[in-house]
């Protein structure tokens, strides 16, 4: 699914690339096609397809259970559910997608790549799978390849979650330290998904690095209005407060890191 700043990026982006898409969309096999701007075909998301038979319905249930277990960090059970799905239907693309996601979480990139590619061989151009695979490419340093896949995903007329792919493109650009392009992608993500927490947080972080404390604070407040503070947002709040001389906010965020996130990298960064 690094340097300290990318620890936060990876965790949130994996949610964007994996859980958010998979919870809603890892359901059934790929369906019909339509023309797209690349001159090829745009697959319908698997979420729009009904199981074709009882075996697929059972496989779907296994995959949905596996996604739920992955969401709470129980990766072993998630793998078991994906394998059970394949026992019901060995050509069920979402099961391979789930395997690719879990293996990416546990840092087995060879197994992750193999399963993503298998999923795409069964469901070509499926935008949910391509969204995950595009981020996988970025995580593994293939930035241009990842961006090409993600650009195709956002142009798929059947894909309903383009904000996730714009967010992943922004994260890819951050890995190249290209804040300008990253900011454009996160802004685009918010145009189609105004409450996207990852995009909001990253825009706050970019504004902080640019020295625009007013914008950074505005975006951080927007993030915290809908999301509980996490270690990275608490550390960013502390940094903004130190820069602006807001002693009350410094005390608040410092206490938050000490009381709730003492085991985090961000707490250790604060203590430096």
Describe this structure in words.
The protein is mainly α. Helix content is 72%, strand content 2%. It has 14 helices and 2 strands, in the order αββααααααααααααα. A hairpin with a 5-residue loop joins strand 1 (33-35) and strand 2. It has a domain at 4-159: Tetratricopeptide repeat domain (Serine Threonine Protein Phosphatase 5, Tetratricopeptide repeat, Alpha Horseshoe). Helix 12 packs antiparallel against helix 13.
Approximate helicity band: over 70%
Q: What summary fits the major beta sheet?
A: 2 strands, antiparallel
H and E order: HEEHHHHHHHHHHHHH
Spans of at least 5 consecutive residues with low confidence = 1-13, 15-40
C-alpha termini separation: 27 Å
Q: What is the general shape? A: globular
Mean pLDDT over all positions: 87
Radius of gyration: 19 Å
**What would you say the CATH architecture of the domain at 4-159 is?**
Alpha Horseshoe
**Separate helix tally:** 14
What is the count of β-strands? 2
**Reading side by side through the largest sheet, how are the strands ordered?**
1-2
- CATH fold call of the domain at 4-159: Serine Threonine Protein Phosphatase 5, Tetratricopeptide repeat
Tell me the structural class. Answer: mainly alpha
CATH class call of the domain at 4-159? Mainly Alpha
CATH superfamily of the domain at 4-159: Tetratricopeptide repeat domain
User: DSSP strand (E) fraction?
Assistant: under 5%
